[in-house]
Amino acid sequence: GPKVLPALRIALRDGHWRQRANAAYTLGLFGPAAFPALQDLIRATHAAQWQIRRTSAWAIGKIGPKAQSAAPALFALLYDPSFQVRQHALRSLPPLQLPSPILQTPLHHFFQTTQDSEDLLFSIRVYPLKNLDESSFFAWRKLLHITKKESHIFFALRALQPHPAYALRALPEIMAALDRYGTQRIRHKIAQILSAIGPLAV
Description:
By secondary structure, the chain is mainly α. Helices cover about 75% and strands about 0% of the residues.
């Protein structure tokens, strides 16, 4: 419990990189009780080793809303060279329960700048259309434009299916996906989407 926090904070700051990553992981297991170590975790997001950055991002998310001051550190990690670090930063932002305007602007900038389809795929898993609205829709459309994987297309179409109003706006991307990847499951998914938006198109 809290009695071991001082030792973990020292290990996070001064230990071998494996010890530092393990200390961050253990702090994350304490959840909100790890709040006294928040500044140490924020500093650890600048560590040279990606394993420390990844685990520190994860631990920050486990602290929850009390860790809102760590949001800038997580936003910075969205541009980390390591996909695993970026993934954990994306996943750790929702538990902070940031006000929507504070969250949307940095995320939208990230969606605009990334050229990694895996980033976009993971983003629409973490931030479905109903959560971020236009920013998530932007990420969804960009994923369809840049991905070269049929599996990404299928997931994106599946994510869009419950939202016929967005699907109506995305008809050009949907039909382009059909031209590029006309597999049976893609054709079937697009048929379901077109059926759902039929009444809206009248």
